[in-house]
Amino acid sequence: MPIREDVVVLGGGLAGSMAALSAAESGASVRLVTYKKSTLRFASGLIDVLGYANGDGPVSNPYDALSSLPDDHPYSLAGEQAIRDGLSLFDQVTGDSYRGSHTDANALVPTYGGTVKPTARYPEASAAGLASDSRSMLVVGFRSLTDFDARLVSDHLEAAGVPFDVHGAELSFPKEYRADAKVTRFAKALDKNEDIRFAGRSVWMREAVAETVKPRLKDAERVGFPSLLGDEHADEVRADLESHLGADVFEIPMGPPSFPGLRLEDRLFSALDDAGVRISSGNPVVDYEAENGRLQAVYVDRKRAKIPYHADEFVLATGGLVGKGIDSSREGVTEPIFDAHVPHSSDRYDWFDDDAFGEHPFARFGVVVDDEMRVLDDTDEAQFANLRAAGAVVGGADGAAEKSSSGLSLATGVVAGRNAGASI
To answer: Where in the numbering of this chain does the FAD-dependent oxidoreductase 2 FAD-binding domain appear (predicted)?
Structure first.
């Protein structure tokens, strides 16, 4: 029997998940097809909407800056309500594990480089670390965790003019690991809270960590750790540390593997399961079938056999240049599944700016869409009547420079999924 759904979404990241959930809300049967693991495990877990506009910022209220964006920007096409609808759906999925829904204003969240990121939603685990909070802060790092330098973070925060006293401390983790030990080793140790020998006595791991930190606490009212405070029992780990230290504890988002990103991925996939979305993973989409201007099926390569997935509507959410939803070579820039139109100069030297921190055209590469997220060809006509796109595969925005990547995924995902479901 052929595999058939009302809507097939290609891509399992934030945009694909939002599109699938939005389509499912309409009552459509939905299948999410994903090949590689999503980029959420490399992301901070912070949900940015718009932190900088036209090089200016940080933006206090992202909605106030929308009018300054160009007409072909995905936010201009999707509209403000799509951003709000995307955040609303995100809030339903994440519940009380995220903060920020009480206001339209951006929060300022410290990152592992010591920068302060404007963001619309942030994990509960990061809430005590906001840069707008005037309470004194201690930043803790561990010598065997080479990806995080607490003193560098504190120095950069101080240089940024934060309204609080901050100092950093590099300490020894109570259990010795190799210098190249992955962050997962630390998280699992705190999750298990195993009984270890510490200072000549038997102590639980979390208590040992707190006792290691206490001599450096001084007058700090809150303590920031790299985001390794547990995986399955993260809330419990943080609560135990707060109890031992007598200070608020928070996590500072850091690089891959990102526990905030992994926790968000778990919540998204749990929501997809609850919504009845079927998930097919581990095999790439390699071809498609079309007739009379409409897609009929996509073909998934499964052990050298091409398996068709039929649907009435399709959503492309395979990511941008980083996620390989957009490819580039000496011959040009392409979208590899449907060969959708990706505007770009034929001269590769026009793809970038000579200034390393300039406005690079390649950052805006992606497919062209209309206000219903239908993918357009080079004549501004729908390539296929039933193909839409969402997330970083959509061109026209520099999500990294704007600090808008997550918001773009939410807004375009909701519009693409909602319209796909409504077209059934």
So the answer is: 6-408
